[in-house]
Amino acid sequence: MSAPTRAEVVAVAVAEAFRGDGEILANPIGTIPMIGGRLAKATFEPYLLMTDGEGLLIENIMPVGVENPEKVIAAWNPYRSMFDIVWNGPRHVMMGATQIDQYGNQNIAMLGGTIAQPKTQLLGFRGAPGNTINNKTSYFVPNHSTKSFVAHVDVVSGIGYDKAAKLGAHAARFHCLPRVVSNLGVFDFETPDHRMRLRSAHPGVSIDVIVAATGFELEIPNGCPETRLPTDAELQLIRDVIDPNSWREQELPNPS
Amino acid sequence: MAAPDKRVTFDEIVGEIDDGMTVGIGGWGSRRKPMALVRALLRSPVKDLTIVSYGGPDVGMLCRADKVAKVVYAFVSLDSIPLEPHFRNARQRGAVATTELDEGMFLLGLQAAAWRVPFLPTRVGLGSDVLANPDLKLVTSPYGEQEQLVAMPALELDVALVHMHRGDQGGNGQFLNVDPYFDDLMCSAATKSFMSVERIVATEDFLKEGSVHTLRINRLMVSGVIETPNGAHFTDCPPDYARDEAFQKEYAASAKSDEAWDAFRAKYLDVSEADYQKAVTS
After folding, report:
1. B93, B100, B182 ranked by CB distance to A124: nearest
2. DSSP class of residue A60?
3. Is B42 helix (H, G, I), strand (E, B) or coil?
4. What chain B residue is nearest to A163 in terms of C-alpha separation?
5. What's the pLDDT at B1?
6. Which class does domain A6-247 fall in?
């Protein structure tokens, strides 16, 4: 078995974000998040329910980026039913973030300018406000830099812990941001005031590199560990079953 | 059997849409969009529309053609091309007003209009910059902890435009892909609704096409129906056809310059639907 690539380390870090979730809808968005989520289901979280990327919930471990994959269909889940799950609660979504700040506020809507005339129009709010106020929301950021990890997001799409705190404990009782996974490391908000903390640095990435690529003060625990390496069994699942065409290496090329 | 005949022409549909109206467009992103009806709007002189849409190329094209005063949306995307280039250009020029919502708030707004209530409560939006919009207000629950919730206002539509796979001449509509999207809600939220379909079939033949569960739109929701084969082109309309990715790329490339748009428009939009279909299938 050849050495794991950065994309494979990251996929395992994504899988770890779903550890302990039990029987909920794991809803990672994007190629590597989907690989990681399916890896979690294939190994330590077998009762996760996952989508086919569209309107079906499936029970088998479906490969990513393969034409007409086999699907063991468990349930019909058109968009309207997805909102039923989001608002009911048993879901952990992993979204992207164009910008994220130290409390986990996320922006995918627009950059610069004003709401009336943004400098750069992005996707829109999509489902971020509803996700973050209703169920677990983690983030995947494949391009960690001071442009993506920022002191202040231009627009709050998904709400962070400071915004949630202002709403009060009752209103924000379902708000939970378990994890942020980037190409450089793994982060969480397990600090007294829920500021972002480095949970682990990926092998080969120094803490100095992470600090320099982050536009706010990151909590760095003493003796911060390295992100764990994939096991041989995990590598085999990723390479042979979940992503046989290696789409992961395109989404996150191995650092040279 | 007595059922009305609601078959209409493009001209009759466009004749119902006046300047300044609020028009809801069904589908989702670049999926099962009523593009033949959008193209009919593009050929008409109508302007200053408010477009309410889970947005795709419908929004981009109408913005580019200066038909739009305002867009109400949660996203505008071509799916395989994540950012809709014409919509981006319009936003970055400040050319259209907007109400940007969460995807679920959008659903609640349509549902409120369909149920004829002024708003529906939700916690969606709390803490986020969706609420930077002064038109969105909070409401206090009269029950329990008396928590504050967002009062998502009804998205009342003058006209809804949707595209279904099959319909009958009375206006019953059937979807044959996995997701019905929100087309039935769009219709119920509107004063008048027009449904294009891939094929008009006899009512008694619906169940040869799909199960009873696919009969999502009933004729109470629909003012007029029109048969437009390949009418969702170039958006995704399985099982009848997939998205025309090559054409979508050509469409996206038309955002690069005025000349590119003029050429695209002359070739594909300043022509009849029949000539459009000839141009894209040749």
Report:
1. B100
2. S
3. helix
4. B127
5. 67
6. alpha beta
